[in-house]
């Protein structure tokens, strides 16, 4: 897989290292000479250019990229790059960094963004996931917000306790994809039984979140 990353700061370089370790081809783009340096990320391609200029993106051969990652520290740049990647170069998938949570609403298909990653939002969700019991925590969105990864920790008073998964009628477009129990993660089967303290991870559409929460929060009778 060929990945082009705009922004060679700490975020962009970290993503590049991870992708290179997984044997992907990576190009880093930055307009700052100080940010670029072959010795920092051995194996990566480098390009000194403005990520919002068509000429530079053409030089980066964006049309050959499988994924473009907009990882600069400027939301406007990340939005423009995502839009250009989609409309001018036909890139199949774009991942864009959201620096200011107030701008998160802009990062959607209208700006060519497939996946928006808001570090402040993600950190907040992870804090909630660590301490929230009996509440549905939204961890991440996929497919331009059409699906979300959500976590729910089962309270001991929940009606779900001792329920067989195959007998639970989850809402439409909702899938229980994983359970963490006693620090061990596993893919649930229809015969598994839910226990108090289980962390349940769902993929669900946003319009089913209310129905899912009502099911999960139903008290034992």
UniProtKB/TrEMBL annotation:
Instruction: Report domain RCK N-terminal positions.
Output: 1-117
An example of a GO molecular function for this protein is: potassium ion transmembrane transporter activity
Domain of life, per UniProt, equals Bacteria
Q: Which GO terms describe its cellular component?
A: plasma membrane
Q: Which Pfam families match?
A: TrkA_C (PF02080), TrkA_N (PF02254)
Name the coiled-coil region(s): none
Q: Where is the RCK C-terminal domain?
A: 137-218
Alphabetized UniProt keyword annotations: Ion transport, NAD, Potassium, Potassium transport, Transport
**PANTHER family according to UniProt:** POTASSIUM CHANNEL PROTEIN 2-RELATED-RELATED, TRK SYSTEM POTASSIUM UPTAKE PROTEIN TRKA
> What name appears for this protein in its UniProt entry?
Trk system potassium uptake protein TrkA
What is the protein's species of origin?
Brevibacterium aurantiacum
């Amino acid at each position: 897989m060929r990945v082009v990353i705009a922004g060679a700061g700490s975020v962009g370089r970290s993503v590049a290292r991870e992708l290179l370790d997984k044997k992907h081809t990576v190009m880093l783009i930055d307009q700052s000479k100080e940010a670029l340096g072959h010795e920092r990320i051995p194996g990566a391609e480098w390009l000194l250019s403005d990520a919002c200029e068509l000429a530079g993106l053409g030089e980066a051969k964006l049309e050959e990229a499988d994924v473009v990652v907009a990882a600069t520290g400027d939301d406007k740049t990340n939005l423009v790059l995502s839009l250009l990647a989609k409309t001018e170069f036909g890139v199949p998938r774009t991942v864009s960094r959201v620096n200011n949570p107030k701008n998160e609403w802009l990062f959607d298909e209208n700006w060519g963004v497939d996946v928006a990653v808001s570090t402040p939002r993600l950190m907040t969700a992870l804090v909630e996931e660590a301490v929230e019991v009996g509440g549905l925590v939204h961890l991440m969105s996929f497919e331009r917000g059409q699906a979300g990864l959500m976590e729910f920790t089962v309270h001991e008073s929940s009606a779900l306790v001792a329920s067989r998964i195959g007998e639970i009628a989850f809402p439409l477009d909702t899938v229980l994809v994983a359970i963490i129990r006693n620090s061990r993660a596993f893919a649930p089967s229809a015969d598994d039984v839910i226990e108090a303290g289980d962390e349940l991870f769902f993929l669900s559409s946003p319009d089913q979140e209310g129905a899912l929460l009502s099911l999960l929060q139903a008290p034992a009778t």
